Amino acid sequence: MTVTGRFDPQKYISPVVKGLKPSGIRRFFELVANTQGVISLGVGEPDFVTPWHIRAACVESLEKGYTMYSSNYGTPELRRAIADYLEERFGLSYHPEKEILVTIGASEAVDLALRTILCQGDEALIPEPCYVSYQPVTQLCGGVPVMVPTSRTRDFTVSAAELEKYITPRTKALILCYPNNPTGAVLGREDMLALARLAEQYNLLVVADEIYAELRYDGPPVSFASLPGMQERTILISGFSKAFAMTGWRIGYVAAHPEFLAAMVKIHQYTILCAPIMSQMAALEALRNGRSDVARMVEQYDQRRRLVVSRLREMGLDCFEPRGAFYVFPSITATGLTSEEFASRLLQEERVAVVPGGAFGPSGEGFIRCSYAASLQELTEALNRMERFVARRMKYSKAVAHA
Amino acid sequence: MRSKILRLLESNSRLSSKEIAVMLGLPHDQVAQEISRMEQERIILGYSTLINWEKAGEEQVAALIDVKVTPQQDVGFDEVAARIYRYPEVKSVFLMSGGYDLSVLVQGNNLKEVADFVARKLATLEHVQSTVTHFILKRYKQDGILFDDQEADRRQVVQP
Ligand SMILES: Cc1ncc(COP(=O)(O)O)c(C=O)c1O
Question: Is the dihedral of CA A88, A94, A97, A99 positive or negative?
Answer without folding.
Answer: negative
